[in-house]
Amino acid sequence: MTGKLQTRTVTEDEADIRLDRWFKRHFPALSHGQLQKLLRTGQVRVDGKRADTSTRLKAEQSIRVPPQVEAPPKHVTEKKSARDESRVKKLIIFEDDDVMVINKPAGLAAQGGTGLKENLDDLVKSLATEKHGKPKLVHRLDRDTSGVMIMARTAYAATKLTAAFRERATQKIYWALTVGIPKPEDGKINAPLIKRGELMAVDEEDDEDAKSAITLYQTVESAKKLAAFVAMWPITGRTHQLRVHMAYIGTPLLGDRLYGGDKAIGVAEGDIGRGLHLHARRLIIPHPRRGMIDVVAPLGPDMQKTWKWFGFEHNAKTDFTDA
Question: Model confidence at 323, in pLDDT bands (50, 70, 90)?
């Protein structure tokens, strides 16, 4: 059963987004191929004119939506249980009308995938509104990495925040515990990365498919010759960049068996935390409308446990202002 012919108006907070992304937000069941066919046959139009998927929208433009494009149920019907809403709200460390910043716990995937029982993208449906829908992901953290994640509450904010990440107008500071102490203790790793099978690796063969990857790091504290509390700033944002780079210089992250092997598991006999010791500590990013956002996420339970055991400072001041 098809719906009715609709004419939708582009809102101010949707200005400058691509037409295909507008459809993805309003009609998620419509595939990219289906949209292309509708555009090619002139059934979808912008201000009465033909358009393509990459057309940038302007506020107050009208979009013709043909009857065969079904509107999804209202966003409020997407809401999950009160338990989900309560759980997400406990993770929020900053929010306003445009953005929401959470301290993502380790073990929670950003998006769904095979074998995953839950993910952040589904959990935030509990915070959906009639006008703007659910908060939107604009970047990712690995499932086992904890810390700062910023989400957009409006389409306008999503466009601006996505652009900030794409143009590297952000500073992301990570905290980690390395097995062994980096040499030199502070430095810059400039080592291109390439995918080898299912993992990332440093390219040592000048492969044309390798991508530039640069990490700045500094040792904040060390524990004899066992381990180090290291702060890192990934100038580039490649998949698993920090994990691969630190393993490459001989000091893998604690708990990272994937890139550090057995060396990444045994660091000390004691009451330390489990899992990957990598935390997105701080994010500095332009606010979509005004000024800057500068947020800090406290360490999660396992890293707090490890920091306590080694006697590291939980609230150490780390930055790269002189970088």
Answer: low
pLDDT at residue 78, rounded to an integer: 45
Burial class (CB in 10 A: 0-12, 13-18, 19+), 228: buried
Q: Is 142 part of the annotated catalytic residue set? A: yes
Written as one letter, the residue type at 10 is V
Cα–Cα distance, 98 to 95 (Å, whole number): 8
Measured CA to CA, the distance from residue 220 to residue 218 in angstroms comes to 6
pLDDT category at 72 given cuts 50, 70, 90 is: low
* Cα distance between residue 140 and residue 109, in whole Å: 9
| 3-state SS record for 156-175 | HHHHHHHHHHHCCCCEEEEE
Tokens representing 124 are 């935030």
Catalytic residue among 16, 84, 121, 142: 142
Lowest mean pLDDT among 1-5, 72-76, 169-173, 304-308: 72-76
Rounded-to-integer distance, Cα 118 and Cα 69, Å: 29
- Distance CA(171)–CA(283), nearest Å, equals 6
Backbone torsions φ then ψ of 117, nearest 5 degrees: -80, -30
What residues are paired with 133 via a beta bridge?
Answer: 129
Per-residue pLDDT reduced to its tens digit, 195-214: 999 899 999 888 989 999 99
CA atoms within 13 A of residue 292's CA, in its CB half-sphere: 9
pLDDT higher than threshold 90 for residue 101:
yes
Amino acid at 207: D
Q: What is the rounded CA–CA span in Å between residue 296 and residue 307? A: 17
Q: Return the percentage of the chain with pLDDT > 70, whole number.
A: 94
Stretch (H or E) spanning 91: helix 82-91
Cis amide leading into 288 (omega within 30) = no
Cα distance between residue 55 and residue 64, in whole Å: 14
Q: Average pLDDT in the 176-195 region?
A: 96
